[in-house]
Amino acid sequence: MADDQGRGHPLRGFWALLAGGLAIVTVIVALDPVTRQEDCSNYHAAGNVSAFDDPVWDLNLAVMGLGWIALTTLEQFLPITHRGWNGWFSAIARAMIAIGLSVAGCCCLIGRLLIMCN
User: Fold this and answer.
1) Where on the phi/psi map is residue 40: left (φ > 0), alpha (ψ -120 to 50), or beta?
2) Transmembrane ranges (predicted)?
3) Whole-structure pTM value
């Protein structure tokens, strides 16, 4: 019996990863944070300073990162994500790749900025 649903899109299971990553990168570029420790206002001093002009973005960016991981994980459990795949191994492999990349992206993109001037 032929598969009536056909082949799934190659990015199925990665849409939240790609869209969330693009949104976070866009926000970071728009905010123009400090990217070198020498540019921090408390360089060679004690105390905590934000890498952003408005320190509330430290919390906002952390929440965005957690939301990105949560939405990427949620997408892996949607039934449409698994339609057209040959087996559970490919579903689990894609889920692990998507979730792993979102966690690594949060650590590399957001985590680095949050500890830059501390």
Assistant:
1) beta
2) 12-31, 92-115
3) 0.82
